[in-house]
Amino acid sequence: MRLDLKLTGCRALTMDPARPAAHTIGIWQGRVAGLDDDVADLPAAETVDLGGAVVLPGFVDAHTHLAWNGRRTTDVTGLSTVEQILDRLSAPGTGWIEASGYDRRIMDRPLTALDLDRISGDRPVYVADLSGHACVVNSVVLNQLPEITSDGWLTENEQLAARTLRLPYSLDEITAELHTSARQVLSEGVTMCAEAGIGAGLIASSPLEAAAYQRARLPIRVQLMVSAHVLHDVAADPADGIARAIDLGLHTGFGDDMLSLGAMKLWTDGGMMARTAALSEPYAGTGNSGQLAEPEELMRAAIVDAHHAGWQLAIHAIGDRAVDFTLDAIQEAQRQRPRADARHRIEHCGLVRPEQLGRIASLGVVPVIQPAFLWAYGDDYSEIMGAERAPWMYRGRAFLDHGITVAGSSDRPVADGAPLRAIDFMVHRRSSSGRAVGPDEAITVEEAIRAYTLGGAYACRKEHVLGSLTPGKLADLVVLGDDPRTSDSIAEIPVLATMVGGTFAFQRPS
Description:
Urease, subunit C, domain 1; TIM Barrel
């Protein structure tokens, strides 16, 4: 046998308990052919000496937004006064004025429609909140939404109504956005992304969105979550027990190792940043408990119908009240049609009370968490949750101690998407200011790496081909400039190279 590539001189953490370390990796036809003595004497078309660099399986980002992240809008991130934002948005042109990165929490005063009217003329303006769950629009937009009374600040379904006026983006625009994001994630060691909602809903770009992914032929693996908004009645044989589906009955698992259909995405509440995540008790110092995204009967029907149609479910639930609802609905779906290893997911699972942990475990639900949220926004989130609830946010140790598989993700571009940043937080549980956020939820470095390798692969039903450097699995890996297990600053470790399917898709300049 002649290998396509042999990597030597590496310190590989394989994440395979049967063979946890290796110094030589043989690659053939895009897969790991063997390790160490298995391949040491085999010839190879190319041999690369990594000079002692650390090698991990490629990171899996189990919940991200590639198109949104790559979108070319005016960036207002960090601007804290109305005048700064208006100055940034004041430019000649036609059509929509779109901006992103708005953070109402840091403003001198909230931005309003009347403010935006000063610089917009007859152009519609859409300023997206950093959270993705709110926006500010001008009067041109509000006049097209006569059923909504607002000063310009819109959240959740009202925001969706405004965003729908702008849609769709063209396939060419979406394709360019995807390539921008693919380059970024490769530079951070990510080899597979789960795109968290296409086709309809808050994050959608076009009803033809999947076609953009086919057209793009990205250098990373992508799994598409399809929005539950596109479920529709189907005239299937009654014996199939499927009342609603998407066209042709497609569901989780369709596709190949580069592009496939993943879970069906549903939203049950909002977000902490926008104060719309649904809580069982109000945000600290307020009478606001957030909100569920839709009437419970509609959301429950979508969950049950999608389960019946064969979908894995990825259910957005950030607040503990939304988590309660989600667990009840999943239990009901399984009662009606038991399905072994349905592997349903809770996206974010942001606030979990102690008594909810056992239910998550017993239902086999996978929390798909975003630890970097607490690095970026942990100070704010701790204040709005209060001292009792702050330790329950984006848990780590409690999940693992209950036997729950944890998947790491970014929700890019809401926060820093680099897996090493998130792994650093999971180990140290400190915000960017140094504040301890749920320190009892800290986990080990290897446990945190597992969340971004095998855990992410498991959540995406890809653990048989991804997540570890095991002979027979796809040759996706990341080469690091230091060992996360011994580094004083995991987040600052340089990514030297990223390989997808045995080919270096990213290499840092020397």
